[in-house]
Amino acid sequence: xxxxxxxxxxxxxxxxxxxxxxxxxxxxxxxxxxxxxxxxxxxxxxxxxxxxxxxxxxxxxxxxxxxxxxxxxxxxxxxxxxxxxxxxxxxxxxxxxxxxxxxxxxxxxxxxxxxxxxxxxxxxxxxxxxxxxxxxxxxxxxxxxxxxxxxxxxxxxxxx
Length: 160
Fold this sequence. Notes:
Strand content: 25-35%
Radius of gyration: 15 Å
Low-confidence stretches: none
């Protein structure tokens, strides 16, 4: 079953020439970050952990993601839920799970289904809604698409 038809969402992607859309899950804590790490491992998704743009490192305990001195480069976790679909988690704060998706890779129904499945997997695991907005969007209250935990599905413009 197709959750989001490509024809309904392709115009939402690539607004203002950007290939990146931002995603987030609010109201999280270290246990939620750990749940995401567990989800990545359970699904066998390829991943790489690094600090700044350095070489990949072994994934540290989740607490170490946020226990770094001020001014230290942020940690990044690159996850490939599909060989051609990249999601980059940025460990900015334990209180919010932030990630970027390269939508230039999301051309067509098959890859949109991968993204929908990924958003749904995270939302169901955390029991929270997951939203995607255009990169740099000032208004997070108007997501492009997202997983609505109350409806248990990915929707176009889930908050309005």
